[in-house]
């Protein structure tokens, strides 16, 4: 009798363990699926924000190297914001749409080979890239990044203070974007932030120095 009770108890325990393992497996698959589904626009958003920040700040620093007028810097930054956002959106749209065409063509070929694959096809359709979403995220993120140096320079008349505030604001934003990119990619945050920060400093310094050199040469 005791042996039967022990067997029943062991069977219930084994069933409970199996159910827990299956549930954990399903949760892990769901998390991985959700992460892969979000990775497309998250990647575009982080890259777009970083590009907007560095390119707009570098343009403003370059113009500021030869012309200290606040209006010239603001107009240059705004032109860079609009042009960059449009360029990022169009480039991302074309790139992701090409990827979409390739995946759709592959699904059609798979459908011809496997007649009974409706369930598999529906699951694959949910993972197809969205060009409009990627383009909108990229343009919005570029604009967000570009607004940092623009806002930093908008209310400061003194040239040296304005440049220092732009560099400080951009540096803080670069560290933030570097940390965010590392968090999304599950990479070391300190190394990623430092790499993005140094890259941004180099871009601004090169633009400032080369523009100053060309402007002082009388061209």
TrEMBL record:
The chain crosses the membrane at residues 72-90, 134-156, 163-184, 196-215. Keywords: Ion transport, Iron, Iron transport, Membrane, Transmembrane, Transmembrane helix, Transport, Vacuole. Signal peptide: none annotated. It holds the Pfam family VIT1. GO terms for molecular function: iron ion sequestering activity; iron ion transmembrane transporter activity; manganese ion transmembrane transporter activity. One of its GO terms (cellular component) is vacuolar membrane. It is a multi-pass membrane protein. Its main location: membrane. It catalyses: Fe(2+)(in) = Fe(2+)(out). One of its GO terms (biological process) is intracellular manganese ion homeostasis. It is found in: Vacuole membrane. Vacuolar Fe(2+) uptake transporter. Belongs to the CCC1 family. This is Vacuolar iron transporter.
């Amino acid at each position: 009798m005791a042996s039967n009770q022990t067997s029943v108890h062991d069977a219930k325990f084994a069933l409970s363990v199996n159910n827990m393992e299956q549930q954990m497996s399903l949760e892990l698959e769901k998390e991985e699926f959700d992460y892969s589904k979000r990775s497309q626009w998250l990647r575009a958003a982080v890259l777009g924000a970083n590009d907007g920040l560095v390119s707009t700040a570098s343009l403003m620093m370059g113009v500021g190297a030869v012309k200290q007028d606040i209006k010239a810097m603001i107009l240059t930054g705004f032109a860079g914001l609009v042009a960059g956002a449009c360029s990022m959106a169009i480039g991302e749209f074309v790139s992701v749409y090409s990827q979409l065409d390739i995946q759709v063509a592959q699904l059609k070929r798979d459908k011809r080979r496997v007649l009974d694959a409706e369930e598999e096809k529906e699951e694959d359709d949910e993972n197809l890239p969205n060009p409009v979403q990627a383009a909108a995220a990229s343009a919005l993120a570029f604009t967000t990044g570009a607004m940092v140096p623009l806002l930093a320079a908008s209310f400061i008349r003194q040239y040296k203070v304005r440049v220092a505030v732009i560099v400080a604001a951009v540096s803080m934003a670069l560290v933030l974007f570097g940390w965010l990119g590392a968090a999304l990619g599950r990479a070391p945050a300190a190394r990623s932030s430092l790499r993005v920060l140094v890259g941004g400093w180099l871009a601004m310094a090169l633009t400032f120095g080369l523009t100053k050199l060309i402007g002082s040469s009388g061209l």
